[in-house]
Design goal:
The protein is α+β, with helices and mostly antiparallel strands. It is 23% helix and 14% strand. The protein has two helices and two strands, in the order E-E-H-H.
Length: 71
């Protein structure tokens, strides 16, 4: 069963370029992101684009950024 206090569900999508089929690259339009879990509000405020998703997941799982690992 779902553990609301310890679980985190992230639903997002890379929308590609459907908004402008003349564009061969991905657009800069916002991508909806849904977070479900106890810390969804705090983590959701840290996401402004797709590149932030991995950072939030690493933070949630307790990984340290590689540039701050002890020597």
């Amino acid at each position: 069963s779902w553990d609301h206090q310890n679980g985190l569900l992230i639903i997002t999508s890379d929308h590609g370029n459907i908004e402008d089929l003349g564009q061969r690259r991905h657009t800069n339009n916002p991508v909806p992101t849904i977070l479900i879990g106890e810390s969804h509000d705090q983590l959701g405020r840290q996401i402004s684009d797709l590149t932030d998703i991995a950072k939030v997941v690493k933070q949630y799982l307790g990984y340290m950024p590689t540039n701050t690992l002890p020597a």
